[in-house]
Write a structure and sequence with these properties.
It is built from 14 helices and 34 strands. By secondary structure, the chain is an alpha/beta fold.
């Protein structure tokens, strides 16, 4: 066995690695030489590799997109414009049907009114309604609304719809409908159907604004406007009648005026004036034949005379009825009475001439056509004159002062319902104490403070025609009355007016010219300047009596004092009726009857001065007769009045449906006309807009793009 003597030197074997290391370090490295052709091929390979990766990703993306689009198309997605739930087409819903039942909806096309067309579509739509749906039916009448018990009850409610004479605004009906829908189960889809003719009168800017606001507050409700209007409207209409007076005296002529208008084409029309008889028949009193066109309406005037005392009723009608019947005839009522007795109290006959001629001109008195019967007395005779209710009014012209007995007589007369007028002038300066006495102040409206004097040109009356019924005749003449040519130079300035006194007419300088006070059941007027002086005389207080406005003003003052301006005889649909009753009468029961045969009973208490009727007691346009039963010595009372449809209901011009829908929002309101549009709109509303077609089109594009790219990418280069 060999042994090593120096084993500790064995690690020296590691030194054998030194030559190896030196060899590796010192060896010559090979040089890399690339051929140009190989370098080009390598670069081309890299470009092709990147291009293939991009193509592969594009194809992969298109194929993934195609699969996704195919899946989405098969799921049949839908969208919904409203915020209500998207559900089953046949799931129960809560719906409100709002019908415009205004008189305009009586317009006929193909022998069918717009309301009948609305009812027909509503009946069809109710058949399409899911069972167990909650339906509310509303019209243009005032009153509460609620859901019907079932679909059968809703159909019956639709069948009973009628034209509403006093139609409320569509915005009110829609607001009521939305309130009803708000009470429904929130899990039910809510729908609102509005049956309308889309006329500008129905959809005025204020109505559109209000409906917009209401719909914004109810975004969960799907809204559908069912257009029942007519594009080519053909209508010939009469405006309500303008009467020269509703109350006349026997033998006074009555002038009636109306306007005949047409919406399309020129046509010849026959217009008739008929007067109703006591036996229910009508007698034709006049006929006019005129040619009318849209650009040339005709103003027609008729006259009636020789009518006996009492209530008279009649109508003006177009001989040939057209598509809208209600404006083919207009009704009127007049009252023929004995001349009203007016007592003039003056210092002399000359001072009463101006007022007497204004109230009862000599020519009319001679022909017995004056509406006032004038009697004059001196101031000294006043306290011994019996001022009973046979006098319609008592006028004191420039009084100087009265005895206590005269003041008491005037006070008692006014308390019983009489009318008193004071025309103050220069004589009052000598009797101020009399006007300021305690007994005088029971009837005299105010205290006289001092004389007022205008400048050299004078002041003038400055009435507001709409401030008082006494000025009603001046309303149509606003801006045309020459008050500035009737100067007032002197007048009485009054102390502060009591609370129960009102100014009827001021001067231009705002001081009172005519004031009124209620005394008991009567009225007292005071004019602060006289009407008894000759205007051309030196020191004249005014020139009022020189022009026609003085005649009209005097006439209206006496009618107002007589109480004839309290009630009217001719009204529009929706207005309350106020009829004057005799001064003394027992409790009475009146029967209100119309030509249709409908009768309504209403009672009045003893000695009531007026009979008040609400619109529902005279709902439709017609002549109404009001008769009481005779009681004891009280004879039968026979009254009457007329009701007409406002002329605004004859305005049938349509609003633009596209503009209306754009204003309200196309995603909020759907305007439809026929059944096909209704079905399509409701389908979109209930289950949303079908998007399967859109996804199918996108899928086709995706597959086509994949096919083209695949063929281009893998073709042999």
């Amino acid at each position: 066995m060999q042994q090593l003597l120096n084993p500790y030197l064995l690690p020296g074997l590691l030194l054998a690695a030194i030559p190896v290391i030196l060899h590796l370090i010192m060896r010559q490295k090979p040089k890399r030489l690339e051929f140009p052709a190989l370098r080009f091929l390598q670069q081309k390979k890299q470009v092709n590799s990147r291009r293939l990766k991009i193509r592969h990703w594009l194809l992969l993306l298109l194929r993934v997109l195609a699969v996704c689009l195919m899946v989405m198309a098969l799921t049949r997605p839908r969208t919904n414009a409203s915020l209500g739930p998207i559900g089953d087409q046949y799931a129960p819903i809560a719906a409100a049907f709002v019908f415009d039942t205004s008189p305009r909806m009586a317009y006929q096309k193909e022998n069918e009114t717009r309301l009948e067309a609305s009812q027909e579509k509503a009946r069809w739509l109710l058949k399409q309604m899911p069972s167990e749906s909650h339906i509310a039916v509303l019209d243009s009448s005032l009153g509460p609304a609620q859901f019907q018990i079932d679909l059968g009850s809703a159909r019956q409610r639709v069948d009973r719809l009628e034209i509403t004479p006093n139609a409320q605004s569509l915005s009110v009906s829609i607001e009521t409908a939305l309130n009803v829908l708000s009470e429904a189960d929130p899990q039910l889809r809510q729908e609102l159907y509005v049956y309308t003719d889309l006329t500008e009168m129905a959809w005025s800017p204020s109505v559109i604004s209000k409906v917009n606001q209401l719909l914004e507050e109810s975004p969960q409700v799907s809204v559908y406007f069912l257009d029942q209007g007519v594009e080519d409207v053909r209508n010939v209409s009469l405006d309500p009648i303008t009467l020269s007076s509703e109350v006349l005296t026997e033998n006074s002529p009555l002038r009636l005026q109306t306007r005949l208008a047409s919406t399309s084409g020129s046509s010849q029309q026959t217009v008739e004036l008929l007067l109703d008889q006591t036996d229910g028949t009508s007698v034709k009193r006049d006929t006019r034949t005129v040619t009318v066109s849209p650009s040339s309406p005709q103003v027609l005037e008729f006259a009636l005379a020789g009518l006996p005392e009492g209530i008279h009723q009649g109508r003006i009608q177009i001989g040939k009825r057209d598509n809208l019947p209600f404006d083919n005839e207009r009704f009127f009522t007049i009252d023929i009475r004995p001349a009203w007795k007016i007592l003039l109290v003056s210092e002399s006959e000359e001072e009463a001439v101006f007022l007497q001629e204004a109230l009862a001109p000599e020519e009319l008195r001679r022909r017995k056509q004056a509406r006032f019967s004038i009697e004059r007395i001196d101031f000294s005779e006043l306290e011994n004159t019996n001022l009973d209710r046979s006098w319609a009014a008592v006028c004191l012209l420039d009084p100087q002062g009265l005895s206590d007995a005269a003041w008491n007589s005037l006070h008692n007369y006014a308390q019983q319902g009489g009318g008193v007028a004071f025309f103050m002038g220069k004589r009052a300066r000598n009797g101020l104490a009399s006007f300021h006495s305690e007994v005088a102040q029971t009837v005299f409206p105010a205290k006289l403070a001092r004389l007022g004097r205008a400048d050299r040109l004078g002041t003038s009356l400055a009435p507001d025609p709409f401030s008082h019924p006494l000025l009603r005749e001046f309303r149509d003449l606003e801006g045309k009355v020459p008050w500035e040519f009737l100067p007032v130079y002197r007048y009485w300035v009054l102390e502060e007016l009591p609370l129960d006194v009102r100014t009827v007419i001021p001067f231009q300088n705002t001081l009172p010219a005519l004031i009124e006070r209620q005394v008991g059941q009567g009225r007292v007027l005071l004019m602060t300047t006289p009407v008894s002086e000759v205007p051309s005389s030196q020191g004249a207080w005014n020139e009022l009596v020189l022009e026609w406005p003085f005649v009209v003003l005097s006439d209206q003052m006496m009618l107002y004092l007589a109480g004839t301006l309290k009630g009217r005889l001719n009204y529009l649909e929706g207005q309350s009726v106020l009829l004057s009753l005799p001064e003394k009468h027992p409790p009475l029961t009146f029967v209100i009857s119309s030509p249709s045969g409908n009768a309504t009973r209403v009672s009045s208490k003893a000695n009531e001065k007026e009979l008040f009727l609400i619109p529902s007691q005279a709902p439709v346009a017609a002549n109404y007769q009001v008769r009481s039963s005779s009681t004891g010595e009280q004879k039968l009372l026979s009254l009457g009045f007329s009701v007409n449809v406002p002329d605004t209901m004859s305005q049938l011009s349509r609003t633009n449906p596209e503009v209306l829908q754009e204003t309200m929002g196309e995603d909020r309101v759907q305007i439809v006309r026929d059944q096909e549009e209704i079905v399509r709109a409701i389908g979109r509303g209930r289950t949303g807009q079908e998007l399967m077609g859109l996804f199918a089109i996108l899928l086709a594009f995706a597959l086509g793009a994949e096919y083209i790219l695949a063929n281009r990418f893998y073709r042999t280069d």
